[in-house]
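[step 3/7] fold_predict: job queued, chain A
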Amino acid sequence: MKTIISISTDKKIFETDSSVRQRMIEYGALFKELHIVVFTTQHDALISEQISPNVWVYATSSLHKILYVFDAYVLAKELLRKRKKAIVSTQDPFETGVVGYFLHHKMKNLLHVQIHTDMYSPYFKKGSIFNRIRLWVAPYVCRKAYLIRVVSKRIKLSLMQNLKITDEKIIILPIYVDRPVGIPLRKDDGNTLLSLSRLTHEKNLFFLVDVMGKVVSRVNRVRLVIVGDGPFRKALEAYIEAKQLTEHVYIEGWQQDPEHYFEHATAFVSTSLYEGYGMTFVEAALQRVPIVASDVGIMNDIFKDDESAMICSVNNKDCFVEKICSLLENKEKMRELSERAYSEVSLSIPKTKSEYLEQYKNSICDY
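[step 4/7] structure written:
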């Protein structure tokens, strides 16, 4: 069995009841040992601890975020000195990837890299100056990896095209999503659109509000419910008010268990600029809710336009308006889309948690 040293940014691992922590414990059972180094500041006041018989989590407790990479490197290097054959797995090819890159250079360990975002989408680069720097760093990290785990075919193809990485070096393993037990109970009132999303730049929610402005002028009593939170919340609420859509667009905030929102949803809508995977697409499909989405993540891979979802090119407002309106006016089309999406997703994702965990183990140790 292998020993894994993971470099992560997810502070939820320190939360006793979090799903992330439970997932790390499950991953740990696959390996001899799992050591997780997490970017944290002293202000976070998080303490390194052992969370299961063979899983340990370490806080960098950095004075400032700018020191994350250095502090994680020092911590992980000490772990590697005692476990010379350990595999280093990084959460991304960016900041955590830089830690992995220098560890590989110094300690000659095997480097495993995970990629969860479509970094070669043109919209990723436009997102921030930090994303431009990340795009400069990522090729160096990826070329040092012995294996790269990606979450979608879209990302794999982009790596092969942009970095000339060979097919056998990239493993596709999507994000695990629990299947609902039995047929989901639906109570939709025929006019509720649902969006589950972080309120961030790449989710393109101001564009979605503009789309709703057009839809409202054509469809009576339609409303959009946005479930999620993030740094753009106040600006988005102000934008909704400025567009005079407060009677039609509602922000519910972050919810611990958003599943019941699917019960009342007529359709699920996503206008993201880019996605690596699109877990909410899978969740909507498993709940038998028809989907209207931009061509990102697993759209045009697992889902096909006009067959299992309604798909528009990114930022194509006319397309979104037309497809949403036509769907709301055609109950039979909604039923066909949702049933086919359910079938396609059911065939494409692991049937059980144990099957997924075995695939996860192989995505790191398959060499």
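[step 5/7] annotate
The longest strand covers residues 3-8.
The CA atoms of residues 144 and 259 lie 40 Å apart.
exit 0
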